């Protein structure tokens, strides 16, 4: 397989790397397999629109263009190598439901199709009660003169579609595009509808999965479809990849990193970011249509093409920022809740350290032109390390620690959708039962057996609150939420509580903390006040407790027989 191909019928006005097959004749691409191409006209595993975008708009020197064009191919190949977005197919029949509220809407659609194109049903939206399922297998419950009737169809056309029809895949609104575009899409979907896996999920670090109380379900809250659902009885999440739009909003709000973006996961982003050393990254989601974008890219600006527009979070932004050593431009006409919080947090951090924003957001072409002119390198901001095995919070913590260094830069407030916090413990009430440690699945809370301490690394805390609701002691553990303290102690383990181990009064073996033994003894002593043996058992280890109770039993029996 030839890995890289560049096709343009007009050719190129400068040479590019010999690693790339260059042709102006489309016939040269026939019956050949390619990994990365610059255009959808060539059959390849991945089409990289950013290549032509860069060539058309960059003001780099010829030598820089030669280097950067190859670099863009290598970036795309890296994305392909690390991608986990498996493709699937769903069978789709000709059964089609048309929801039209006027004669004009009905006729505009029916006139655009042939009678044998679809098995057409038509209803008015007023009788719709419920829509469920997904493309290829949709169930629409309608009110038929007081009776519920279920219509089973494969696709739906709905003029001015309501949210009830947009939650799942398979509904198309001609008012958003055109009747002609919708008809074309409907026909393409018949027989086989292809979709991708956009998310991966690690339930072991999920802060919703099988917890006694709901302390997090951000992913389900921000999902614009039914791609993520939750079962509040079992505390488990359900994922419907066929209903997923691939926006990635769930990824940016996931506090622990349990959900990741399959087309460009954190490992992929890290590896791609390495190509952006000493460049100004221009992040452009797929929906922003680079092929029609005409702007001037000053020297050292390199596009960073991503599929979704909502999956980038504070750790991924900071990775790209520190590897490039530059401000990052983010060009998108929509900023998600999670990405919005992340951008503000990172910008506040950079303002505190460097006196300038880290991320320049451009939501239209005019704003993009301003950002492209303004973007600059940030002296002293370069930093990199091998983050491959680290979780989301660990990556952010390590990178943020580099920024803070030995300084005290104040504090940064987090937000509505991205949370950090500081666990506080009333040491007088803490018995070191370590329930809170068991409740923490991001390793912010740790127990150190060497000195019998409960420790906290605040930089890893997601402020989920599960440790707080799990703590058996009243008024013992609290959380100061939504704050990041930009000081060295934030990244170091601090001792929240400490105690000495209590030695069994019989054998001398240390078996529990002194506070825990004392607490239980104080609770039970009144019940055992007239039985010194039972009272003594409160201060015994698990091995000695039954021994002294049995010995007392035998002593009493022998005494009675004497």
From TrEMBL:
<keyword id="KW-0479">Metal-binding</keyword>
<protein>
    <submittedName>
        <fullName>4Fe-4S dicluster domain-containing protein</fullName>
    </submittedName>
</protein>
<dbReference type="Pfam" id="PF12838">
    <property type="entry name" value="Fer4_7"/>
</dbReference>
<keyword id="KW-0004">4Fe-4S</keyword>
<dbReference type="Pfam" id="PF13237">
    <property type="entry name" value="Fer4_10"/>
</dbReference>
<dbReference type="InterPro" id="IPR017896">
    <property type="entry name" value="4Fe4S_Fe-S-bd"/>
</dbReference>
<feature type="domain" description="4Fe-4S ferredoxin-type">
    <location>
        <begin position="452"/>
        <end position="482"/>
    </location>
</feature>
<dbReference type="InterPro" id="IPR050572">
    <property type="entry name" value="Fe-S_Ferredoxin"/>
</dbReference>
<dbReference type="GO" id="GO:0046872">
    <property type="term" value="F:metal ion binding"/>
</dbReference>
<dbReference type="GO" id="GO:0051539">
    <property type="term" value="F:4 iron, 4 sulfur cluster binding"/>
</dbReference>
<keyword id="KW-0408">Iron</keyword>
<keyword id="KW-0411">Iron-sulfur</keyword>
<feature type="domain" description="4Fe-4S ferredoxin-type">
    <location>
        <begin position="235"/>
        <end position="264"/>
    </location>
</feature>
<dbReference type="InterPro" id="IPR017900">
    <property type="entry name" value="4Fe4S_Fe_S_CS"/>
</dbReference>
<feature type="domain" description="4Fe-4S ferredoxin-type">
    <location>
        <begin position="421"/>
        <end position="450"/>
    </location>
</feature>
């Amino acid at each position: 397989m030839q890995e890289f191909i560049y096709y343009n019928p007009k050719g190129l006005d400068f040479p590019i790397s010999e690693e790339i097959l260059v042709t102006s004749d489309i016939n040269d691409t026939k019956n050949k397999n390619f990994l990365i191409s610059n255009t959808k006209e060539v059959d390849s595993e991945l089409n990289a629109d950013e290549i032509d975008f860069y060539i058309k708009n960059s003001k780099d020197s010829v030598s820089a263009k030669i280097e950067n064009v190859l670099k863009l191919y290598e970036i795309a190949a890296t994305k392909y190598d690390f991608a986990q977005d498996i493709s699937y197919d769903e069978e789709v029949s000709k059964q089609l439901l048309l929801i039209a509220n006027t004669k004009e809407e009905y006729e505009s659609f029916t006139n655009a199709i042939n009678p044998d194109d679809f098995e057409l049903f038509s209803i008015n939206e007023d009788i719709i009660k419920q829509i469920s399922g997904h493309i290829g297998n949709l169930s629409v419950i309608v009110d038929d003169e007081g009776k519920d009737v279920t219509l089973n169809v494969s696709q739906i056309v709905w003029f001015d579609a309501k949210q009830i029809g947009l939650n799942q895949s398979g509904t198309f609104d001609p008012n958003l595009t055109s009747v002609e575009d919708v008809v074309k899409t409907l026909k393409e979907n018949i027989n086989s509808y292809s979709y991708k896996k956009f998310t991966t999920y690690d339930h072991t670090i999920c802060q919703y999965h099988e917890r006694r109380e709901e302390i997090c379900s951000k992913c389900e809250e921000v999902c614009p479809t039914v791609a993520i659902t939750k079962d509040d009885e079992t505390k488990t999440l359900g994922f419907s990849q066929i209903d997923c739009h691939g926006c990635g909003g769930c990824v940016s709000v996931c506090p622990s990193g349990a959900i990741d973006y399959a087309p460009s996961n954190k490992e992929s982003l890290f590896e791609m970011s390495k190509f952006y050393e000493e460049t100004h990254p221009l992040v452009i989601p797929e929906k922003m249509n680079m092929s029609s974008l005409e702007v001037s890219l000053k020297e050292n600006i390199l596009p960073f093409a991503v599929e979704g527009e909502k999956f980038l979070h504070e750790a991924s932004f900071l990775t790209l920022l520190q590897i490039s050593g530059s401000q990052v431009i983010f060009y998108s006409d929509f900023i998600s809740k999670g990405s919005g919080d992340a951008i503000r947090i990172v910008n506040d951090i950079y303002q505190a350290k460097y006196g300038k924003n880290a991320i320049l957001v451009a939501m239209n072409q005019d704003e993009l032109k301003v950002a492209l002119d303004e973007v600059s390198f940030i002296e002293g901001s370069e930093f990199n390390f091998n983050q491959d095995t680290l979780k989301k919070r660990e990556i952010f913590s390590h990178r943020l620690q580099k920024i803070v260094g030995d300084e005290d830069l104040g504090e940064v407030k987090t937000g509505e959708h991205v949370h950090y916090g500081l666990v506080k413990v009333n040491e007088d009430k803490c018995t070191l039962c370590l329930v809170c440690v068991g409740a923490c699945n991001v390793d912010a809370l740790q127990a150190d057996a060497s000195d019998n301490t409960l420790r906290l690394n605040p930089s890893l805390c997601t402020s989920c609150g599960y440790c707080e609701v799990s703590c058996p002691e009243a008024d013992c553990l609290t959380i100061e939420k939504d704050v990041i303290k930009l000081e060295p102690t934030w990244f170091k383990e601090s001792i929240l509580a400490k105690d000495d181990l209590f030695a069994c009064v019989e054998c001398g073996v240390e078996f529990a903390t002194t506070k825990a033994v004392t607490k239980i003894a104080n609770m039970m002593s009144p019940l055992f006040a007239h039985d010194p043996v039972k009272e003594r058992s409160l201060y015994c280890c698990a091995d000695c407790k039954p021994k002294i109770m049995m010995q007392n039993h035998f002593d009493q029996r022998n005494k009675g027989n004497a």
